[in-house]
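User: Protein folding is very new to me. Would you mind checking the protein record under this note? It all follows right here:
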Amino acid sequence: MALVHEWFGATGGSENVFRQIGDLLPHAERFVLWKDHDATEPNLRESWLARTPLRRTKAGALPLMPLVWRTLSHERFDLVISSSHAFAHTVRLGSPDQTRYLSYVHSPARYVWSPNFDGRGSSPLLALPRRVLQTADVRLSRHVHGYAANSQEVRARIARYWRRDAVVINPPVDVDYFASAPATDQCQAREYLLGVGRWIPYKNFDLIIQIADAVGLPLVIAGSGPEETTLRRAAERVRVPVTFEVRPSQERLRQLYWGARALLFPVHEDFGIIPVEAQACGTPVVGLRRGGLLETVVDGETGFLVDSVDPGSFVPLIQRLPELSQERVRAHAARFSEQQFAAKMTAWIAESLR
């Protein structure tokens, strides 16, 4: 058996899915394009791309990825499962007549297929390269026997772009950990709004700052990313206090969830693990009525969903947060536990092999 994944970072939702699949198949060989220098995951076999300067630039490596997945190893396997958010699902490690290929898809490459969601591929100059990569993506993945999508949103993209169906298996979330209250008493205050994630443009942290200012509540922003300087400048221009928590530990993140009045998540996300973590802490989510939030948030029960990106449209809903039951919010998050993922993933693999 072989498991393959794109590039492997120190933390991240897709990396956690890969680990969880590895726990289900502990004797499988594990391949990645490359792993970041701060990633300590053992027993990962890197591709030849890891020995080139391209490992430092995902955009530069992107055109070569389909080739890499076809020249990954001379070994042949009976079962190959890919964890794919770019081209990992095109991997070939044996003839499809003798090798079973399954792919868990976090999303078809957003910068190739959905540049309106992810601005990294939206330049008009990239229109032709995108079409070339789209054609290669479809042609080189015809051998895949079965797909699983991390959400209904991604299942719809797989059908639209690849003309393939998929089962939906939501990614695992450590809801048991986040549902356990931290030791500190400060986490019970529920006095501030919270934003969590990578500080990159499509995550809309600038909008989060505007929402907090419109409603008049303090804001904590947790994470890291290239937009840090821009966001700090935006925070200086608003009336409410904005605190930045850079690269918080998991324990610190749990404290922040438990201490927040609500998680602000105005993002069109594929699934969104962060909103589930927040709900496991009893913290409701206020976000966009799009993408993964349609599956992870029960509007009016575990949070509120908004159609507009106007900061003012969030204000009346944030004022209604006391109507929600923290116990109901926590109970809903249990649907996305690691145990649920393991059971569904095991059943899908067994059925696909049968």
Notes: The first strand starts at residue 2 and ends at 5.
